[in-house]
Amino acid sequence: MSGGPGCRIGRRALLAAALALPAARTPAAAQAAQDKPLRPAPDPPQRSGPALSIRERGAVGDGRSHPLSERYKSLEAARRVHPHIRSLDQECDWAALQGAVLELARSGQGGTVLVPPGHYRLDGEIVLPNLDRYDDAFNEVEIVGAGMRASLLSWPEDLGPGRFAIRAGSRQGVRDDNKGYQRSRIAHISLRGPKPDNRPGDPPPGMDGLALTSRFLLERVGVFGFRAGVDVWRDHSSLISCQLTKNHIGAYWSAGTDSFGDHLFLDTDLAGNTLASIAVAPENGIDHSSFISCHFGFSPYAILAEDGPAKRTFLSNNKFLDCAFEACGNGWIQGPMAEMYGNVLIGCSGSLLPAYRLAKRPVTGLIVVRALERNEFTGGSASFGDGTNDRAADIETAAIVAASAVGNRFDDAERLIRLGRDGFAPALAISGTCRANRFEALDCSGEFRKVGAGGVDAGNLVQRDYDRVRRLEPDRPADGVALTTTAAGGIVPVATGGTVPVGKTRAAIRMGTVLRPGSGTPQRVDPTPGPAAPVGIAVADAAPGTDSVVMELRLELR
């Protein structure tokens, strides 16, 4: 094809133009196009894995014993259906559940084992497949029931120490947890152990409930009747709306693991265990974890550090939000050889109840640790009781007992201080260093300080005595007001700001009077003008016969 200059059209351009035009259709061709069925819609994306009911694998679920010998005449015949069994004496329910787990684990897709409503009797561990950090086999297996009260797995016979009801594949007796990245989910089901009716002081069973590694998710799971309901290893597991009750220990941070922390306990009930809601082995510790709206107590201890020299920090950088340490028999947080660093307790409270007390174990204090450093108690978390609902008179030493306390904050310390004011127990008993422990009470703020020689009385003006305080002496600047009567070596709350009652020397003092240390008794205040620097202003009339005046501290006027 040819034309004038600039009009030459190549073969490729012609071909492209022809392909761009709609193809001409004859009437017959158009009718055929209309009669041609449309292409079917693509299949919906598959789930992460199939679901397999244990009833399909032969589970009975009537709560009674059904050994495999009821169905099979020989071990060989049983193994054609359940290759993992070892004896015809084993339970059908156990064989079905473990078989379903293995079948899904080996499928290359993983999946969900469904546990329909029923009471299933088991006589061996359920072992979940283990996933290491770089696993690409997609063999994650979940176990999901029909409800916490509908689907029950029970172990009437104790499997013994070191054995579990359900465990991750890496949780062997040798405690080799190098591949503990489990990423499994268990939901809407209950596990019952061999001793669900134990009471404080009874010997615990040998076996434990759920043995976790990393990234487990438990949702609405009930665990009761075991030595430890949940044995926590490693990091990033979550327990949501679970019940860990009627065990010896609700949740146990056991020995022999590198726990990286970052666990979440949300709306989980850990009350009603025979020793503690939570216990921590000396080799382990709870780090960077969150406990939100959890219920501790109705047991001897809420959180217990087991006896023995601590190899790690007991509690470190955890958050306790709106948690109840309720009806504890022997104390809330106990670890005389353990350390508690950087934790925050917000909106928490608790009480003591003798019904859950272990015999021959004293109630030394509500919180007993070796070192208490940089912890914050706020928004009700220092609601240590007023001597009625928490049996404060049973406390032998102090509400908080430690060898050292540094940099702690008590932002709602009214009731904590009132324990000492009302004569029940001192707020703190610190045998060693006590420094920078601030408090906020209803009308005042200040610091808990160790008392020097001679002790102090409530309402005394006090002065610094190196790292301690003592009654104010003549010609010395006042540092605050003692809120409780405390002997030498004890810990006294010293108000440094706000409004407090202070001992007076005059019979009557009028509101608005500027007050100074008394000339003869400098630890009390006097309205007489003099050379001493003012320490405050009376905020109410003090009538004759009263021994103190309520004063707004103005120590900055010194």
UniProtKB/TrEMBL annotation:
Q: Which UniProt keywords apply?
A: Plasmid, Signal
* Origin superkingdom: Bacteria
Q: Which stretches does UniProt call biased (Basic and acidic residues)? A: 54-67
User: What residue spans carry the Low complexity bias annotation?
Assistant: 25-34
Q: Which residues form the signal peptide?
A: 1-32
Keyword Signal on this protein?
yes
Q: Does the keyword NADP apply?
A: no
Q: Where is this region: Disordered?
A: 25-67
UniProt-recorded name of the protein? DUF2190 family protein
Q: Could you tell me which species this protein originates from?
A: Azospirillum oryzae
Organism placement in taxonomy: Bacteria, Pseudomonadati, Pseudomonadota, Alphaproteobacteria, Rhodospirillales
